[in-house]
């Protein structure tokens, strides 16, 4: 059977990148596949690509029959209900990439490319669609540090973590810990310049550092772009052939 199809309202970007004679894929959608949601891809880097890949860099995703670009955020893949945000796409490990995109059904194969300066698309990762779940929590950890100023057995005056009284009152319920394994909490602020009195579970040493972990939930940005131009054709660099002198020419010289 040969069917002639007439397509209306064709985007201008498609006509600019379309080459006569190249096949055009036409596909149908299942239920809910025309809607947008948060997609979580389980990816692993290819060993041939070594440059660092930052979180929120624009990448090109080939998800099943679809192709689009987005800026994902990376996180660890664990069995917990909260997942740590990763600033870079790590090597030799499985990483979760989260974006806004059209709904697909797992396990859908995924190829991830990065556009180079010359317009070529280079493969950087492969994987599959893990889930379509906007409730997956990605948290970013920030560590505040302070130094003990005066030490009296289990209590100490800590400075340089905060610089005004209001911040100390706000973060008072958060637990403290030190590099040497002590744990404690803030008892009260002292003065107006960020000094605070803290109590720990053991004797604190003067060379120790007081730390406070703060967590912030990360959300992917709406960076979905369905238009991805085809890469330019690879041009073979023509190398000039230099003829070497023959033996007869060497003897003549």
UniProtKB/TrEMBL annotation:
This is Pre-rRNA-processing protein TSR1 homolog. One of its GO terms (cellular component) is preribosome, small subunit precursor. Residues 1-218 form the Ribosome biogenesis protein BMS1/TSR1 C-terminal domain. PANTHER family: PRE-RRNA-PROCESSING PROTEIN TSR1 HOMOLOG, RIBOSOME BIOGENESIS PROTEIN. It comes from Magallana gigas. It holds the Pfam family RIBIOP_C. Required during maturation of the 40S ribosomal subunit in the nucleolus. GO terms for biological process: endonucleolytic cleavage of tricistronic rRNA transcript (SSU-rRNA, 5.8S rRNA, LSU-rRNA); maturation of SSU-rRNA from tricistronic rRNA transcript (SSU-rRNA, 5.8S rRNA, LSU-rRNA).
